[in-house]
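Question (not urgent): is this output format expected?
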Amino acid sequence: MDTLSALIAHAEPKANLFFSGNLCGSSDSSNHPTGGVLHLVRSGELALYNQTNLVQIIKEPTLIIYPKGKAHRMQSKTLAGCDVVCASLTFKDSPLYRALPDTIMLPLSQLTNLSHVITMLFSEAFKPRFAQSAVISNLLDLLLLLVIRHLVENKICGAGVLAALSESKLAKAIEVIHQQPDHPWTVEELAKQVGMSRARFAALFHRIIGQPPLSYVTESRLLLAQKLLLMGNPIKSVCLEVGYSGSVAFSRAFQRQFDITPKNWLKQAQT
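Got this back:
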């Protein structure tokens, strides 16, 4: 699995449609699902406000994403209204989720590599069709993944793990961490893997990603452990697969990271 795919697997991004059609008048975020939100503007002129002030007048097809949620209001500027697709977004707390910008606003003219998915989504969203809900759900999920890849490829994120993927040395370190989660990594060994001194590597890693290297190693291991537990793997095998010598050490690390034991976490996750 490539590094970005591993990060996406930890974050588990999901989009759920809550509106598609013509917006005449205004729409306030307080009236819609809480959490992250995605708006895809197909046509029309739209005024975008925060809680009190005008943020931007949108005059062309545009993708607007608030990954972590943000109070906002959209107001159609023409009598004909605006054609929009709106979805709520959910992410699991993870390095990828924390690296996402608070606001992503991209004219569709800049997303030519995503145009085929956007065209299909618009085709499905504005007239009744068989299996419409299922198709739209999958297209929204695909669009979200492609947007994350676009952020990395175009170096749009200024910090966090997504920015680190654009730094060759940090990208290599993240790659080996995810490829060998059971390896007893040290800062010295990771620095050697990427051809840097220990001090320079540790400082760069912390500055860009926002946490020390071994803190990232631990979190990555334990996020993987959560997925393995949900797949039905017993704790004894999971702890070895993610680099712990036994279930006692694994349980202590898991509880330090998530404030809950693996057994209790699994019970909650399965309910």
